[in-house]
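Q&A log
Question type: sequence-to-structure
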Amino acid sequence: ELGQPLHAFDYNLIEERKIVVRAAGDGEIITTLDGAERKLSRDDLLICDGKRPVALAGVMGGANTEVSGSTKNILLESAYFDPSTVRKTSKKTGLKSESSYRFERGVNPNGVTRALDRAAALIAELSGGLAAKGRIDEYPIRIEPAVINLSLSRVNSILGTGIDAGEVMRISEGLGFEKEAESDGRITFRIPTWRVDVTREIDIIEEVARLHGYGSVPVTLPPVIMKSETVDPAKKVERRFREIFVSGGFSEAINFSFEDYELLSLFGKSEALRILNPLSSEGAAMRTSLLPGLIRNAALNLNRQEQNVRLFEMGKIFIPGGDGGLPVEITKLAAAATGRRQPELWDKEEFDFYDLKSLLDKGLEALSLSGAVKLRRAAEIGFLHPGKSAVLSSGDEDCGFIGELHPDLSERLGISKRLYVAELDLDALTRKFRKTRKAFTPLPKFPSVRRDIALIVDEETPASSILEEIIKLDSKLIEDADVFDVFTGSPVE
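Response status: OK
Response body:
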C-alpha cells in the first residue's frame, strides 16, 4: 500500500526486551528465516536484541524470533536503511528478498512512522488484536526534501520543444513538487522525500517530457555539418599499404627504435646516432633502417620452426642531422617474407621476388602512383643479392628497394632460407601522392588493340628500360606494355 518494508518479531522471544542496531563482527553468523546460516563481516548491518542478532537489516529477519502459530505478541519494525549498504549485503550473501529489493531502490525516509501506524491498525482490525499505545522512534538527523533549480530554457533546449512556464508548473505541481521561488526563467522546487528518484534538474525535465507527452515533441533531423572528412595524405598512404600487406597474409611487427649498432653496420648504416646510456648493446643506436629489426624477427620465427614467415613494419628511422643538429625522422615501410607461396595448399612453390613486388605494385596502384614510381636494377646495395634486387625511384629520387637478402648475410644472421625484403620511403611517396590528381577518363570509343613485338637485345639490358622506350613512342595511344615471354640460347646469338 505504501511501499514501505516491515518486519514482525515474536516479542516474547526478544531478549531483555531491547532492540539494538549495530554493525556485524567479522565472521559473525546469523540464521535467517530461510533456515540458512549467513557468515557476515563488519560491512553488514544487524538488528539485535539484548544478547544476539535477530535480523539482517533491510534483507531478512532471523529464525530465532520468527512469528509462528504460537505467537501471542509481536513487535513491528519499520525503518529506513541506506540503499548501498543493503545492496552490498544482499549481493555478498546471495540473499534476495522483497525487502532488499525495495530498500536498494530507495524508500521514503519520512514515511516510516505512517507505514508503521497503518500496519498496526490493519492487524488490529483484521485479526481482532490490540495495538499497544505509543511507539519507539529513533530519528536523530531528519532527511529534508531536496531543493532543485529548474531552468525553463534548458527544458526546451534538451527536449526541442517550446513548453511555457505555465505548463511546466502544471505538470510539476501535479507530481507534488512544491514551488519555492521563481525568477528570470528559473523555478525552484522542493521535492517530496517519497520521490527518491528525483535528485537533479534533468530528472524534473524527464518528468516534464513524460507527462507533456513524447508524441508532442516535434520530429526534427539532428543538425550536421555537411562536410567530408579530411584525411591526412600520410595516414592514407600508410593505411593503403597496411591493407595491402595484411590482405597478402603479412603480420605487422612493432620494434623498438633502438637498434644494435653492429647490426646496423651490416646494412650499410654506419652513421647512426649512438645512445649515451644504452640499456644494452642491442639498443645502442637509433635505427637508420627498419630491416635489421624485421630480419631479426624473421630469424627468431624460423628458429622456432615457423617455416612460413611474412612480416611488415611501419615506423620512423633517424638520420643524423648536419652540423650537430636534430636528427631527421623519416617514415618507412619494411617487409620480409620467406616460405611457401600458399602454405595452406598442396602447391609447394616458394614465395619469391615477384610475389613481394606484386604487393608493392598493388600499393602504388591504389595510390595512383604506378606511373610515377619506376623499378631499376640495383647493383650497389651490398646486403642484397646482386642479381635479385631493384631500386624504386621517382625521377631523380630513390624511394625504396626490393630484393633477396644476400646469401652471405643470411648465413651470418642464422637464416637458412631465402629471405625476400623490401623497404619504402613513405614520406617520399606521400609527397608524390599529394601532387596526384584523379580525373575522369571517358570510356574509349574503339576497342583496344594488342600487338606482340619480338626484340633481340643483350642479356644485360633491363626489361624496364625497353618498356619505358615503348611508352615514350606515343604516351597518348599506348596504354600499357609488359613482358610476357623471354627466350635465351641457340639459335639466337
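Response note: The chain is about 30% helix and 20% strand.
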